[in-house]
Write a structure and sequence with these properties.
Length: 515
């Protein structure tokens, strides 16, 4: 054959490239009759003299093989369907805590329906993954402007990064009109014919609007697990039971959801939600879902309210509560003393922990605050009873500092803190158990009985408790009857508190027990 006259033959594309066990068509294509193009190396070369041998020779070159290896090592991305929401798995996969990354649910296969994705399509998938990450972690949209530029510099050898263009406007659009919209549609479609419960709560934190947040809990057959999903946010400026019920009914009707599938509504416990005569749950059950099961409101609210109502019975609890709040507030307003506190913590060989903030509206927030104050009690005494009066006389005159000093001087403060820690430890465990994201409804009854029984053991006669043959008998114990109670000095107050008061004079012991 005369030199330079071999023409490109499309049949070559199905053959092996001779070095990388890959078809020629993966990287090579026809440039013209006498030239082939390598899409990986972005170059053309003559094949007129040696034909397919020229292609195989190029494939064996060091530069081509290095680029081929890089491409093989990259995380390839794919599209599972033609819409953005199909790129994102709208149903969370089952896991120990049902907490799965939204961006990680996007498939990383570089093919769709057996066909290789184009570079543009792979770039769109990368943009969808980025948008999902922004939504999931509440990242500012403005970050996308910088991400687009920095990805180009971070991955200069990536053709996907080179084509990545996802500024704040595009990110917003992808999330709101793409991922969110179609994921919502898929969610609504998946719950049309399955039993579900809804979880609702009101909030007024959206620019003066009062909103109703609705979550949905249902068994996801696709993943074989119970999952909780965000359903919607509805504006509900007038938070009466009638209005909230109307908002929920309108939402069901608008989205073609059947009340026949609603098995339970979970909410907090005010009369608006759970009033016997005209509360929200009562209205929904009487008018739309007579079959609905009502297991009561949030048990964590019940436990928290019980604790809030019991703590004020302690001696000087108002002063003690001031101490809990003042200790944190002092270091917030006087950051210059944080370093001094750290120095004292080193003296006592303690962790340099911060004093925690007490917030009475949070579930049992008093427990971790008390535990931290006990841990840091010696450094606090040295700082407020020695260092500040001696070296910072002006600070020592502040009302907050005077209250802290009074509490630290009071011999009853530390044993009272130890008692609170001991008494609330079982409630803290209960709270943590039922704040898990996994299903725990099957544990609720037994754990409530266990919590009640343990509380009774603290101050009731054990023989009375042991006589109970069933849970109904346990609930029937009259704990206000002194005949059923232990003697004061036999109450369970915790070994640390008992050890401290053992050094008290008899008068102070009696005062502490009665307080």
């Amino acid at each position: 054959m005369p030199p330079g006259t071999t023409k490109y033959n499309v049949d070559w594309e199905g053959q092996d490239d001779g070095t990388n066990n890959e078809p020629i068509s993966k990287w090579f294509s026809k440039a013209n009759e006498y030239q082939a193009r390598c899409n990986l190396c972005n170059c053309t070369f003559n094949i007129g003299n040696k034909g397919i041998s020229s292609i195989k020779r190029h494939a064996s070159q060091k530069n081509h093989k290095a680029k081929s290896a890089k491409e093989a090592a990259k995380v390839n991305v794919s599209r599972e369907s033609t819409s953005i929401s199909d790129l994102v798995d709208s149903e969370p996969s089952p896991s120990a805590d049902n907490n799965i990354s939204l961006s990680s649910t996007i498939s990383t296969d570089n093919s769709f329906n057996g066909q290789q994705l184009t570079l543009d399509e792979q770039t769109h998938v990368a943009e969808a993954m980025w948008s999902a990450l922004v939504a999931e972690h509440n990242i500012a949209f403005s970050t996308s402007d910088h991400a687009t530029k920095i990805f180009h510099k971070m991955f200069p050898d990536s053709s996907i990064a080179a084509g990545f263009k996802c500024s704040r406007t595009k990110t917003n659009y992808t999330i709101v009109d793409g991922i969110a919209t179609e994921s919502q549609e898929k969610l609504l479609e998946s719950i049309k014919n399955v039993p579900f419960s809804i979880l609702i709560d009101e909030s007024n934190k959206q620019y003066g609007k009062k909103i109703l947040v609705i979550l949905i809990k249902f068994y996801d057959e696709g993943h074989g697990d119970i999952t909780t999903r965000f359903l919607d946010i509805c504006v509900c400026n007038n938070g009466t039971a009638d209005v909230i019920a109307s908002v929920i009914v309108d939402f069901f009707n608008k989205n073609n959801l059947s009340f026949d599938n609603l098995i339970q509504i979970m909410s907090d416990n005010p009369n608006v939600m759970r009033g016997v005569l005209s509360g929200l749950v009562t209205q929904i059950k009487s008018k739309y879902a007579g079959h609905m099961v009502d297991i009561g409101g949030c048990s964590l609210h019940h436990v928290s309210n019980a604790i809030k109502n019991s703590l004020p019975e302690l001696h000087n609890y108002e002063e003690l509560e001031d101490f809990l709040q003042d200790a944190h507030a002092f270091f917030s307003f006087h950051v210059e003393f944080c370093e001094k506190k750290s120095e004292i913590q080193e003296i006592f060989d303690l962790e340099k922990h911060k004093i925690l903030r007490y917030c009475e509206v949070r579930f049992l927030s008093v427990y971790p605050v008390v535990v931290r104050l006990i841990e840091q009690y010696k450094p606090l005494k040295k700082l407020f009873l020695e260092e500040i009066p001696k070296n910072y006389k002006k600070v020592a005159k502040q009302a907050r500092v005077r209250r802290i000093r009074t509490a630290l001087k009071d011999k009853f403060t530390l044993p009272t803190l130890y008692f609170i820690q001991h008494a609330l430890e079982i409630f803290q465990k209960y709270e943590k158990l039922f704040q898990r994201s996994t299903t725990t409804i099957h544990l609720l009854y037994d754990k409530q009985i266990e919590l009640y029984r343990t509380t009774l053991i603290y101050f009731c006669r054990l023989d009375i408790i042991e006589k109970c043959k069933c849970n109904e008998d346990l609930l029937g114990i009259d704990f206000l009857d002194s005949e059923n109670c232990l003697k004061l000095e036999e109450f369970s107050i915790g070994s640390n508190a008992k050890k401290l008061i053992s050094d008290f004079v008899e008068k102070d012991k009696i005062f502490f027990w009665k307080a």
